[in-house]
Write a structure and sequence with these properties.
The protein has 280 residues and is α/β, with parallel strands linked by helices. The chain has one domain: Protocatechuate 3,4-Dioxygenase, subunit A (Sandwich), CATH 2.60.130. The chain contains 6 helices and 12 strands. Strands 1, 4, 10, 11 and 12 form a 5-stranded mixed β-sheet that branches. A 5-stranded mixed β-sheet has the order 3-2-7-8-9, with no helix packed on it. Strands 5-6 form a two-stranded antiparallel sheet. The N and C termini lie far apart (54 Å).
Length: 280
C-alpha cells in the first residue's frame, strides 16, 4: 500500500472512483475542482484553524437569508465574479447583439401584464422616467410581439420583495412590442443600493474592505420566437458605482443616458434599443 503524502494525495482523490465512466462531465468538473482546491491549500499553507473558519463560513452560507430569495449562495457567486464570468463565457459578445448580464435573485416569472406606455410602479417620491426604444434583429429589422419583462427597485433602492410597504408586482411588468418593434413605459429613476450585508457574504466584503453597492439599474428579459432570449441590465450613465459594481455586471454597451426635463416637476426620458440574435 502506498502511503498518502503531500505529493500523491491529489492523485489519490481523483483516481478514487470509476474514472468518469458513470458521469464524464461530472468527473471532469470534479477532478479540476479537486486539483485547484488542493493547489490552493498548498499555496496558502492553510491551517487547521483557517479550515474550520472556512467550514463555518460555508455552513452559514447554506442558511436562508430572508432578504435574499435565492439565499446567500447566489449572492456569494455574484460578489466573487463567478456568476458574471459564467455569463460571459456562455454569451460571448461579438458586437452585433445587446450584451447579456446577470438575471439576479429578484426576478419573478409572473410579473403583471402591462399595456404599452403603462406605468409599472407606484412611488410618490421618485423622479418619473419615461423609457422607450426598439427591439430588432441583427439586420435592423424590427421584431414585433417580442416579450419584454422589466423589473427594478423603487427610488429608495428597494425591490417589492424586500419591502412590505410596496404592493406585490410594484415596478415589474411584461410588455409586448408593437408591429414596429417599439416598446415604451413609465417608471421612476432607479436608485443604487447595497446588497443585503447582514450575512456571511456581507461579513466577507467588510473583511476585504469592499463596499456592498450595486449601481442603479433596470432589469430586462426579452424573448421572441426564432430568437435567442436575452437577459440584461441597463444602467444610468451618472451612477457613481458603475466602475465598482460589487457584482461586476456592468457593460459599457448597456449604459443609458437620462435626459432631464425641467418643468414644474422635473422628469427624465431615455431611449435604449435592444438587438436579438436569431436562433441557429
Amino acid at each position: 500500500m502506498k502511503s498518502i503524502s503531500i505529493d500523491n494525495i491529489t492523485e489519490a482523490v481523483i483516481k478514487h472512483g470509476d474514472g468518469g465512466k458513470t458521469h464524464p462531465r461530472v468527473y471532469e468538473i470534479y477532478t479540476s475542482l479537486v486539483k485547484h482546491l488542493h493547489n490552493f491549500v498548498k499555496e496558502v499553507n492553510l491551517s487547521e484553524q483557517e479550515l474550520d473558519l472556512g467550514r463555518n463560513f460555508i455552513s452559514k452560507i447554506a442558511h436562508p437569508n430572508p432578504q435574499m430569495p435565492d439565499g446567500e449562495i447566489t449572492m456569494l457567486t455574484d460578489i466573487l465574479g463567478i456568476s458574471q464570468l459564467v455569463d460571459l463565457l456562455q454569451h460571448q459578445h461579438d458586437g452585433t447583439v445587446t450584451e447579456s448580464a446577470l438575471l439576479g435573485p429578484m426576478y419573478v416569472a409572473d410579473a403583471p401584464e402591462r399595456k404599452m406606455g403603462d406605468c409599472i410602479g407606484i412611488d410618490e417620491d421618485g423622479d418619473k422616467l419615461f423609457m422607450t426604444g426598439y427591439v430588432s434583429d441583427t439586420s435592423g429589422k424590427p421584431i414585433a410581439n417580442a416579450l419584454i419583462e422589466v423589473w427594478q427597485t423603487n427610488s429608495k433602492g428597494l425591490y417589492d420583495l424586500q419591502n412590505p410597504n410596496q404592493p406585490q408586482g410594484n415596478f415589474r411588468g411584461r410588455f409586448h412590442t408593437n408591429t414596429d418593434g417599439k416598446y415604451t413605459f413609465e417608471t421612476v429613476v432607479p436608485m443604487n443600493y447595497g446588497i443585503p450585508a447582514n450575512g456571511p457574504s456581507g461579513e466577507m466584503l467588510r473583511l476585504l474592505g469592499r463596499h456592498t453597492r450595486r449601481p442603479a439599474h433596470i432589469h430586462f428579459k426579452l424573448s421572441a420566437k426564432g430568437f435567442t432570449s436575452l437577459t440584461t441590465q441597463i444602467y444610468p450613465s451618472d451612477d457613481p458605482y458603475l466602475d465598482s459594481d460589487t457584482s461586476f455586471a456592468v457593460m459599457s454597451s448597456t449604459i443609458m443616458k437620462l435626459q432631464k426635463h425641467n418643468q414644474s416637476k422635473p422628469f427624465y426620458t431615455t431611449e435604449f434599443d435592444f438587438i436579438l440574435s436569431p436562433t441557429a
